[in-house]
């Protein structure tokens, strides 16, 4: 019995009971331990606003009738992350073509539909009411299976990698470490034997990939986390600088609720502006995120980043001054 089933069973038990239900009976009906029963009760109180009270004299739990009408579980009570995960999984499964995993995935599809149906809303109905939109996504490419095989088997890869900045293709031998799905696109985090360092490769830019018999060089998890998580976005590395941005009061209402970096620091000024500070390594992606706010943001520091933004804005203005 899972958490979902236990919540419904406890709700049914308390709704039908004429007297407070002892904890021992709850544990028996829910087929769980005392600790689990307490967690289910607290979850219902906290997330589902269930008016569950405890009567010391009768040593049992009950729904408080003073809270008004008979309490009922809400029709749909996913939190935001659960709903996103559920519908994302559903959409991904719908797009899987018949093949090797068809039989194995069928029970999962059925389970998702049953879960939605149990809450009074069919899978199709919910997917029509909640949309998950993906922006600027690029196909992972034909090399995805080869790359994922190398990752699983811990083998080196020989890849042809197209570098958009230079418009050139280079040959690399890499040791795959992780696949990362970021902003609706796939990336390979790997040890590059050519550069002798950790690098990130966009899968859609890998034009060819060949498995090598050599065992991949393994980088420990702590080193990977430090390298790829320390700085801003997918263009990670050692965070050598701190960005200091100031947003217009109107735009601040949105930005103040955004997470740009796990170590960010933000504050409102007396003028209503919002100032945001966070560490970063490379500037490419950060520049794009700053420029999308146009005149609603100003880079206060460092000077090099401020210059980069100024140059980009000057070039953009020059485009519109052309006759």
UniProtKB/TrEMBL annotation:
Organism for this UniProt entry: Sedimenticola thiotaurini
Stretches assigned to the WYL domain: 143-210
Span of domain WCX: 241-317
Pfam families in alphabetical order: WCX (PF25583), WYL (PF13280)
Signal peptide boundaries: none
Protein name in UniProt: Transcriptional regulator
InterPro entries: CBASS_pafABC_assoc_protein, WCX_dom, WYL_dom
């Amino acid at each position: 019995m899972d958490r979902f089933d236990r919540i419904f069973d406890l709700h049914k038990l308390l709704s039908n009971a004429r007297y407070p239900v002892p904890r021992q009976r709850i544990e028996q009906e829910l087929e769980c331990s005392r600790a689990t029963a307490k967690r289910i009760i607290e979850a219902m109180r906290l997330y589902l606003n269930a008016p569950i009270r405890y009567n010391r004299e009768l040593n049992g739990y009950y729904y408080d009738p003073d809270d008004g009408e008979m309490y009922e579980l809400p029709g749909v009570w996913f939190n935001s992350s659960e709903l996103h995960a559920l519908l994302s999984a559903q959409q991904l499964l719908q797009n899987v073509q018949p093949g090797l995993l068809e039989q194995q995935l069928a029970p999962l599809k059925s389970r998702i539909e049953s879960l939605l149906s149990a809450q009074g809303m069919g899978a199709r109905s919910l997917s029509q009411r909640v949309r998950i939109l993906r922006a600027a996504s690029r196909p992972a490419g034909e090399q995805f299976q080869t790359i994922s095989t190398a990752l699983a088997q811990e083998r080196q890869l020989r890849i042809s990698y197209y570098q958009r900045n230079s418009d050139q293709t280079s040959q690399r031998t890499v040791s795959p470490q992780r696949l990362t799905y970021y902003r609706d696109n796939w990336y390979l985090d790997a040890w590059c034997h050519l550069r002798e360092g950790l690098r990130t490769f966009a899968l859609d830019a890998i034009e060819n990939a060949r498995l090598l018999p050599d065992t991949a060089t393994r980088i420990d998890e702590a080193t990977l986390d430090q390298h790829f998580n320390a700085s801003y976005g997918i263009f990670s590395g050692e965070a050598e600088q701190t960005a200091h941005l100031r947003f217009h009061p109107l735009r601040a209402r949105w930005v103040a609720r955004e997470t740009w970096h796990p170590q960010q620091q933000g504050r409102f000024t007396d003028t209503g502006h919002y100032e945001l500070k966070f560490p970063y390594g490379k500037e490419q992606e950060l520049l794009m995120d700053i420029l999308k706010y146009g005149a609603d943001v100003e880079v206060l520091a460092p000077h090099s980043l401020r210059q980069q933004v100024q140059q980009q804005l000057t070039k953009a203005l020059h485009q519109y001054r052309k006759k």
